[in-house]
Write a structure and sequence with these properties.
By secondary structure, the protein is mostly helical. The chain is built from 3 helices and no strands. It has one domain.
């Protein structure tokens, strides 16, 4: 094999590994959010507050929720 094929195989391996890692990270984050929301419901805490703690600042639902709570 020539050197070019090794580079291509290496880059494809890195790309597949990165995609797998990001998928696993997002799945674990979603499972943690689900668990925290379920425990918040049991404790009587607003589940939307827990959801908004996990999402980015550009979510319109959380912006409206934060504005309503002020």
């Amino acid at each position: 094999m020539d050197e070019g094929k090794f580079w291509i195989i290496g880059l494809v391996t890195i790309a597949i590994t990165l995609i797998g890692c990001l998928t696993y990270y997002n799945y674990q984050r979603d499972q943690a959010m689900k668990s925290n929301i379920e425990s918040a419901i049991v404790k009587g805490i607003d589940p939307l507050a827990i959801r908004c703690a996990y999402v980015n600042n550009q979510d319109s639902i959380c912006m409206v929720y934060a504005a309503a709570k002020k």
